[in-house]
What we know:
Elements: H1 2-9, H2 19-28, H3 33-42, H4 48-56, H5 63-72, H6 76-89, H7 94-103, H8 108-117, H9 131-142, E1 154-155, H10 158-166, E2 176-178, E3 188-190, E4 202-204, E5 209-211, E6 223-225, E7 245-247, E8 268-270, E9 291-293, E10 315-317, E11 339-341
Amino acid sequence: MQLFSWHAFNHLFPPQEYVKLAQDIIKYSSGLPLALSTLGSHLQTEEWRFEFEKLKAIPHSDIHEILKISFDGLDDDTQSVFLDIACIFHGFYKDEVTKTLNACGFHSESAISTLVRKCLLQRVYHLVMHDLVQDMGREIVRMESPRDPGKRSRLFSPQAVHDVLQGNKGSEKVEVLKVDGQALSGVSLSTKAFKKMKNIRVLIIDELHISGDFELLSKELRWLSWLKCPLKCIPSKFPAEKLVILNMKESNIQELGLNLKHCKSLKNLDLSYCKHLKRTPNFSGSQSLETLRLRGCTSLKEIHQSIGNLDRLIDLDLNGCKKLTNLPHSICQLKSLENLNIGSYSSIHTLPVDLWR
């Protein structure tokens, strides 16, 4: 009673006129703490009786449907953010996810605050939700098209992704796609498998081997994670105009290849542990970049002078760049820089004298 009342009324006990109704809800929920917290946070006093009538129509054992009552009460934006987290972003850093979802047109900070208030999301540095809540969100997506996964908004199940990509069964309804590299280990895919999925905004293809015309990929991409990318160079025609997050850690690339002049929305670029990368790209035009990670790039010898034009760069990680002996003097122009990591065993012996003046 205290747990439920605290979430419903911000008090340890309900007002006298709602005691009986609260007892009925507690009895119905079999005292399950997650259900009590979620239902209590969702129910509004003037809607209680109506909501409880809906609740009574659901079997006691169907916890997904019980929790879904709270989901159904969310606005469209918040529902979309919830499903993205449940399907893809569970455990991710909140900052990177909010940047991406804002670029997708969602009011993600407001949505996340609502989800925390509704007990559908925990208030932590990472985005974390209860396993049962996550399962409920994933079941909602599965039921969008139970028999044809290519028509679901989010693809994350290894088997479903395998079937869709291998059978070229994707559609314009797919917005988020996460590939399990191990499930497709040894499989070389053509970019034609992505041709029909023109509205993908989040693409996670870690360890995947893809060849073909990369112009066939979605032009709506905001988040691309391609860890251990086997390519030596990212094609210049790669659709990166709307990218916010680009994660290429541990890749085989020798040069990035992308023309960053066209990546005006890019905020986070992670090239950590790309051991064959010898020089950075030209950063001219990428004015939105806030985080640049080059940690562990053991072949890196040169940072392009244009790095000084990154007015919004906050974090620069050069730890482990053993062959990097000098920093360009233009680094002194980084007026927003807060964190510069060159590591304890750096080959850089002196820093520009004007740094941070």
